[in-house]
Amino acid sequence: MTVLVAPDKFKGSLTAREVASAVASGLADVHPEVVARTLPVADGGEGTVDAAVAAGYARVPVPARGPTGAPVTACYAVRGDTAVVELAEASGLHRLPGAPEPLTATSAGTGDVIAAAVRAGCRRIVLGVGGSACTDGGAGLLTALGARLLDSAGRELPSGGAALSRLASLDLSNVPEVDIELACDVDNPLYGPRGAAAVYGPQKGASPAEVETLDAALRHWASIAGPSFAERPGAGAAGGVGFAAMAVLGARMRPGIELLLDLLDFDEALAGASLVITGEGSLDEQTLSGKAPAGVARAAAARGIPCVAVSGRCRLSSAQLADAGISAAYALTDLEPDPARCMAEAAPLLRRLAHRVAIDYFSLSR
């Protein structure tokens, strides 16, 4: 019996690799004869580089700028001429040294990482755009690749989304051609009521007044950088990085989990498996909108392989789970009702939860 264990992270508790390891150990406790293959997955957000490394890509650390411009070390993953870049590595909220800086935070560090990968010979960049700390329309990313954003006096603009309101001209003559695929699961436009500032700005520390400032600046940015792209689904991803990547760099957008499963050779990993176990910290309505467990379940169903899920908590009904291709869900809260303890003791609880999976599934399959 072969089981493929392909979970996403339990955010705040365990990485995807740690989740997979705990589940595999729990299965072995009950049925040592079971072969548990582990393949941590991600949907383009935090953990994307880790998932690629677990699948055989090499991790490459490079110097980059964080959201405030402070130096950080960020990593990308590489195999052949393909680089996997995770925006959150350099430009994520966790990179903020203190309080959020919604008006001045920059995506330049992500551009630094892409530039390093291109210099190393990578011809294809897969860019996961979750977890951004900035709302700069992707302007910082472009400047790191050689773009110049100038005001009416010919001076280069400072970093951040608010400064875009003073943009007078955009010089792209030094920007290299880069083949970029965006791993993205949001369909927000760049600006407006569903735009990057209105929907995600408050999560990045923007006050109502700052949201208005950023939204107006993004609208002006789009009028110069590519007005026809501003309304495209995903233009508002990562504070507008989706817009800059599509409008200026010609990037193509695909659902994050779909793109990542292709990169991870997921179909090959499914070969010979009689059960797939996926999961994430919270199984909820967002899961159904293209998150990793739903993508894994769809891929398993296409091969006729049953799929179950583990999670910290589950807020989906049996009917919703079934519609997503998940035949059963097991939550840490089934074992421990205290969410704080579930977070603190996630690994041992998950191992115990895997005992239930093993007992339930193998008793049914025998």
Automatic annotation (TrEMBL):
A Pfam family recorded for this sequence: Gly_kinase
SUPFAM superfamilies: Glycerate kinase I
InterPro entries reported for this sequence: Glyc_kinase_flavodox-like_fold, Glycerate_kinase, Glycerate_kinase_RE-like, Glycerate_kinase_sf
UniProt keyword Transferase present: yes
GO molecular function: kinase activity
Chaperone among keywords: no
Keywords: Kinase, Transferase
Highest rank taxon of the organism: Bacteria
Family statement drawn from the similarity comment of this UniProt entry: Belongs to the glycerate kinase type-1 family.
PANTHER family xref list: GLYCERATE KINASE (PTHR21599)
Protein name, UniProt field: Glycerate kinase
Organism: Amycolatopsis bullii
